[in-house]
Amino acid sequence: MPDPTSEFDDPTLAEQVEEYDRLFGIVGDGVIGAAGGLAGTALMTGVLFVAAQVGAFSFESFASLADPLGLGDAAQPVLVGYLIFLANGMVPWPLLFAALMEYLPGERPPVSGMFFGGALWTGFVLGFYTGYTGLTLALYLGFTFVAHLVYGLGLGLVFEYLATRPDSLV
Known about the structure:
Layout: H1 11-53, H2 77-90, H3 92-100, H4 109-127, H5 134-163
Helix pairs in contact: 1-2, 1-3, 1-5, 4-5
């Protein structure tokens, strides 16, 4: 009967197993990132919804995301823009967070995520500004900042939960 451990003595097979594990880890990180991004974007949308109710944010500004892709003339440009916003919240931002997490302040991923969300806010607050003034401007700044903090919190909580489970994907 052949020794089951002898197959790993073959360097080619060992490299294939290592590469498979690395690929599985990358895909696993992507799944965790997408789940965290979805949770964070859902939380953020809730805060933005409250801001819209008090007149401090307009979901119409999401339509501007559809324009660079030539989708500004779509039947529902706000919906298309929001889907682009959601995709960005689920793919590139979580991947960047995963890459930078260990360099961000905070002992735990949720705290690091809040710092990350605060950094993302600096671009959002300028990109989605639609001419608010006075109290409405202060509310816009406050609500969008809180929205980004909860995005980072949600992202970090999911990263922490899924990455530390005993049966984790990675």
